[in-house]
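chain below, 116 aa
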Amino acid sequence: MDQKTVEGHSVRAMYLLTAVADLVRIYHFESDFGAKYLPALRQLWSNMVEKKSYVTGGIGAVKKWEGFGIDYFLPQGTDEGGCYAETCAAIGVMMLAERLLQVCTTSSQGRRLLED
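prediction:
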């Protein structure tokens, strides 16, 4: 995957990435599929956690499309065009984190995931 940043509708992005994480787990992370998609998942997770989520863990800062904006665009109120952070997106983050932990449990990547 060439995508380096998480983009678009926050809930749909979390559901899509959760499905990919499930496939990595099913096909095993050492398979060709896992070798291709696990690094992409880690990249997108890191981008989301480090540059596109509020300190509370909320994602989807742009109210207009209920999704991600540019890096570090985290408005403090809806009058600024953002701060949406809907509950469904938070549930998607938990689902993705749980799947990534299942894939990365035996490695230092799993420990780093918890720290993120």
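Residues 31 and 70 are 33 Å apart (CA to CA). The radius of gyration is 14 Å.
thats it, cya
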